[in-house]
């Protein structure tokens, strides 16, 4: 499966600027709470776990495993070339993100599969974090 050719619909806010800047630098970033130590993603003003406002940005190693996935055969828009596999990945730092799996045949995707981040530019201004099992 391949990355989208873009442009794809996306939204950012002042809160997520460090995340998107990181993607453009091929660096996966997430927030960690300085109060309780829990990883906080997607970014928010206050920790989901303890409500502390003391959150810092960290660099993720970009490795984790597939928690859940599906394979889409009929795309919503022309930019999404089927088949593609939206997935929830659990990062080793303890947070989850919604992404797409690339570089893997649809029939080979599996819960628990070890994956790593791989960045791809879609459209002119967005770099998205995808995940793959290839080294
Ligand atoms: Zn906290």
Automatic annotation (TrEMBL):
Q: Which Gene3D superfamilies does the entry link to?
A: 6.10.30.10
Domain of life where this protein originates? Bacteria
SUPFAM superfamilies, A to Z = Nucleic acid-binding proteins (SSF50249)
- Residue ranges of every copy of the ChsH2 rubredoxin-like zinc ribbon domain listed in the record: 20-55
- Pfam families from the UniProt entry: OB_ChsH2_C, zf-ChsH2
Q: Which residues form the ChsH2 C-terminal OB-fold domain?
A: 57-120
What is the official name of this protein in its record?
Zn-ribbon domain-containing OB-fold protein
Q: Which organism is it from?
A: Mycobacterium helveticum
